[in-house]
Amino acid sequence: DGGITQSPKYLFRKEGQNVTLSCEQNLNHDAMYWYRQDPGQGLRLIYYSQIVNDFQKGDIAEGYSVSREKKESFPLTVTSAQKNPTAFYLCASSRGTGQNTEAFFGQGTRLTVV
Amino acid sequence: GENVEQHPSTLSVQEGDSAVIKCTYSDSASNYFPWYKQELGKRPQLIIDIRSNVGEKKDQRIAVTLNKTAKHFSLHITETQPEDSAVYFCAASIRGFQKLVFGTGTRLLVSP
Lengths: 114, 112
Prior knowledge:
The structure holds 2 protein chains of 2 kinds. Chain A is mainly β. Helix content of chain A is 0%, strand content 51%. Chain A has strands at 4-7, 10-13, 19-25, 31-38, 42-51, 54-57, 64-66, 76-78, 87-94, 104-105, 109-113. In chain A, strands 2, 4, 5, 6, 9, 10 and 11 form a 7-stranded mixed sheet that branches. In chain A, strands 1-3-8-7 form a 4-stranded antiparallel sheet, with no helix packed on it. Chain A starts with a strand and ends with a strand. Chain B is built from no helices and 11 strands. By secondary structure, chain B is mostly beta strands. In chain B, the strands form 2 sheets. In chain B, strands 2, 4, 5, 9, 10 and 11 form a 6-stranded mixed sheet that branches. In chain B, strands 1-3-8-7-6 form a 5-stranded antiparallel sheet, with no helix packed on it. The radius of gyration of chain B is 13 Å and the shape is globular. The chains are: A mainly beta, B mainly beta. The A-B interface holds A 30-31, 33, 35, 40-45, 48, 50, 56, 58-59, 90, 92, 94, 96, 98-100, 102-103, 105-108 and B 1, 6, 9, 31-32, 34, 42-46, 49, 89, 91, 93, 95-105.
């Protein structure tokens, strides 16, 4: 069953803690993305990666970090420096061959700070 | 950087009416414009996309138009049905950069 998988679906974090959200795809896509979704603000780009071992900051990268050690995986760490981390996080991937193509989304992780 | 504005934020129509959602983009190098539909509690899914070498594209009840000079593109849904109720997002991407920037979304409500 091909696709893009995020885990966990729900995550609770205490203030001051770092947490890592998982994103795995078996679509053989080069490009991967992390978006944050807040009510009324659409999808805001946190980080994106066009190829393994390379990634760029999006519009709201502060307080987040990523790695891209494998083509299939693009984990997102929400650090304690992120002042308002409670949100819905969506990971996506696309073929990324230079000709822009459809992005496929995971089911999302809802992060809540308690 | 690229910026995408989307209007309206909410849209209510009667079943059978048409719905139009408009987006503008800032970077003239953008060349790919997808539209996504997100139903409540689900992931966004692509419903139609258009590239900058095309002015209009249709797929059954859905159409997208692109005006490169004015840097805006629109989604048109005809003969709306209650199952069209969802949040719709436009996006723009610059060729080769694989950076998809989204609008803020439009909540469409189709009443029976």
